[in-house]
Amino acid sequence: MALARSNHMLIPVETLNREFDGKLLLALMAAERGWQPIVGGRTAMHQRLAALPRSVYVAKGVRSGSRLIFSLLEKMGHAIVAFDEEALVRFSDDVFLMKLEPQTFSRVRLFFAWGHDNAQIWQRSPYYSGQPMIETGNPRVDMMRPELRRYYQPEIDDIRRRFGDFVLINSNFSVVNHFIANHSRFKVAEWAPAEKTDFYRDGLHVQKKRLFDAFLGLLPALSQAMRPHNIVVRPHPSENPETWRRAAAGLDNVHVLHEGPVVPWLAATRALIHNGCTSAVEAAVVGTPTFAYRPVVSDQFDLQLPNDLSHQCFDAESLFAALRQAVQGPRPVNRELDATQDALLHELIASVDGELSCARILDALDQHRAELAPAPSANWRSWLQAWLRLKRRAVGRAVRTRLKSHRSSKVYTAHKFPGIAAAEVNQRIARFQSAMGRFAGLQARQLSRDIFAIERSA
After folding, report:
1. Phi-psi bin for 184: left (phi > 0), alpha (psi -120 to 50), beta?
2. Which tens digits make up the pLDDT trace of 325-339?
3. CATH number, position 302
């Protein structure tokens, strides 16, 4: 007899500052609807997968790197649904499709697209076999909406107190400045042709290096041009912040740091500087004046979508002039997009307005209950096979995670998800209760380190 859909939901988080608040909101709204959600660090969940209940597993991506864990999840009776955290801003459609493979793509029961643009590129994959694809947006977007602004107001007020009318630089250079020295983030599926892979990897590396050097070299002149205003450099979570700190040495109004989620920083700043960074799309939702600094241009290797949502500056002097205007006078209530930019934003993100992403996701799960039962092949034998494979995987990880140069190193994993205590999770739940006037009686109960069940208090 076929097993029914589980009422448990596993919601893994890879990067604490980027994803946790939005996925905690998803867990709270799921608990309101009768789900039994479990939220926590992705690495911790995978390490303790055998101890967690059969569930609907909400994957953060569908790339080739998830092949093994998707296989184990399916053998253990979990039903996989998925976002793609990286699909909103991508290098090119060709490169994006090279990161997909049948062993992962075919195991996803429901796809949750950022918007129409994301859905279209997924549907172009030769491995797409007609699974339901719903344009929901992403829980991260919910945290940028006006309805949730009160949630971050304490951080916004504190940032403005510390830095005044500051300018924010959000970087996106992990391809050439990765946290792990000499590590490349350009990973494609095994089927991808080597010649094409080398072409894109090399071309992207050259363009990113030219832009990165230009941004580092910009700091002294920007520091001088913007005095007495502060400049905050916020490196990408996968970047090495020390490179930025060396470039900012001796510049007393330039501060390099990566604290908390990006949303309060976008709300607190007078202007954002970037080149091809997802934060430009986030800033468009928040309403922050945004400037793409483009001293070096490549039609083939630039990330064009974020730049199209920004005021584009092709030299330092035009950037400085635009920034001086942005920081002068009263703080604007909201930035107005032109008609073309507004249409592009709605093409990219389904949940810019209307229902929250979390509500759309939960509606989709309710509407597609039939697709969420365990695979027919899931039984005690397949579960035991998966358990043995997890044990072997744990032995290998025990070695790999001790290697500082490995992408799974403990140092790098802790950099992205440094850990969170139950008290902190419950403080965040209390803030959601205050900001939204709902979720009364819900709390986090710690199951193990960095893993929490969201449930009603006794």
Report:
1. beta
2. 999 877 766 677 899
3. 3.40.50.2000
